[in-house]
Amino acid sequence: MDLAHALEGLEFPLGGEVLVASEGFEDAAVVRVNSELALVATLDFVTPVVDDPFVFGEIAAANALSDVYAMGGRPWFAMNILCIPCRLPVEYMRKILEGGISKVREAGAYLVGGHTVDDPEPKYGLCVVGRVRPEKILRNKVPRSSCRVFLTKPVGTGIVVTAIKADMASDKAINEAVEVMRTLNREAAERMVQVGAVAATDVTGFGLLGHAMEMVAETGFDMVLEAGKVPIVEEALDYASFGLIPAGAYENMKYCEGKVFFEKDIGDLKMVLFDPQTSGGLLVVVPEEKAEDYPYPEIGKIVSGEGRVVVR
Amino acid sequence: MVVDARGYPCPKPVLMTKEALEKVEEGVVEVLVDNEASKENVKRFVQRQGCDVEVREEKGYFRLIITKGYTCELPAASSPEVGKGKVILFLSDSMGEERELGTMLLRAFLSTLKEASSLPSKLLFVNRGVFLTTEGSKVIDVLKELEERGVEIYSCGTCLEYFGLKDKLLVGKITNMYDTVENLLQSDSVVRI
Fold it and tell me: Which residues from chain B sit within 8 angstroms of residue A247, using beta carbons?
């Protein structure tokens, strides 16, 4: 990856209070304030995935807030990042911001400012600061076996977005994908903290299997996933068979080579599991004895192993 | 016709292919793409449309040679009869070792089979062959057509169970090892795929 090359050898200034920084595949940075409080900070912005500016604002905001949730934190305040071509009507810009505001409000956080840049391709997102108790930080590396794995939202939205760009998506598929992407991970995160989850991440650009792989990479555990139990946006399978698959899905498949294994041929579903998501759900690892108390689709388990993902 | 889709991001090459195929009734369309994702996507798209596709890797790009139509109908008078004793045994979902090519060949084999002058009496699907008779298979329609025309289709029960496909059978019946042995011994000849 080019970014990895660009970062190679660069030394970031860090100190003892920095609990989580850019090493590994963590979702957000965490800095300790005192024994009871740490701040979770993240920044995320995306290009439009849908035409409607309000809905785009909602999705971009839900996507940015999600990184705080994935660390077990609660969003505290946020700032807008907006790149927009000057030629677009003011109303368009306003709708995006209204969409963002509605999600920040729903998250119970404050929106305290932002920054705008003139740019030929629109982009919107948030910088979010959240709060977490230092001992409650949820990292994404799986620390133990005898756990169950949960996925809190269906996957396949990247394929639907590609079908939207091709003008081949049905209204039903668009509505379902939009609903998935604009939904906050708030409740899923609160429940996972209550139930005592031991690891979590949110499913975004690397797709379900890419993020699953990162959770077990270089650990002594395997994640065994049941392909048939993974919730998906139904139409995504059909669109995948039509070749409406984002290039990122193929890159993810390549990225996971030698680390993700398939016990049988699952056909086009394979590409749905590699599909990059915007504002995807949380992938949550819960100890077996508490698994019953987490009310989201269970898709697999953690067993002793060698850092692989096995799909059956 | 040659469609140059090099330099376009997904899903544009698929749309350009779609447009080109809509213009021809029967014939060959060549599509040029310059990345793996577009190659795979165009391939998926045309296969889904029932076209044959051959992929050639050239210098820095791929050439997809897509054939639309050309299914030769036999005159109704010489309609093929179900052969008395020929059994075709499918031990894999691929024809030969090279899987990508093998899957394509097998599909072509089955669609050609239904045009053949004499149909086999039975098709037996064993080991990975059962992926052809179950959910996710791209040849269900052809197999159903053959079944309607009197060809008996059997999938190995142990194999279905092994792959977790028992409730996903879409065509034909489930068979056991006893029947498989009987079928093989009683046939005039067995063709192994």
Answer: 9-10, 35, 37-38
Number of H helices, E strands in chain B: 6, 11
Helix (H, G, I), strand (E, B) or coil at B1: coil
Global ipTM: 0.82
Instruction: Kindly list the structural domains of chain A, giving each domain's residue range(s) and its CATH number in brackets, ordered by start.
Output: 2-136 (3.30.1330.10), 147-311 (3.90.650.10)
CATH, domain B2-68, list 3.30.110.40, 3.20.20.140, 3.30.590.20, 3.20.20.10: 3.30.110.40
Nearest to A281 by CA among A94, A56, A70: A70
The type of residue at A75 is P
Look up B156 and say whether it is catalytic: no
* Set of chain B residues whose Cβ sits within 8 Å of the Cβ of A241: 44, 48
CA angle B25, B30, B31 (to 5 degrees): 115
Cβ of A245 and B136 within 8 Å?
A: no
Please provide the distance, in angstroms rounded to a whole number, between the alpha carbons at the two ends of chain A.
29
A78-133 pLDDT, tens digit each = 999 999 998 889 999 999 999 999 999 999 999 999 999 999 999 999 999 999 99
| Contact residues, chain B, for A242 at CB < 8 Å | 14, 44-45, 48
Q: In angstroms, what is the C-alpha Rg of chain A?
A: 19
Q: Is B15 on the interface with A (CB under 8 A)?
A: yes
CATH number of B76-192: 3.40.1260.10
Residue A185, φ and ψ in degrees, nearest 5: -85, 20
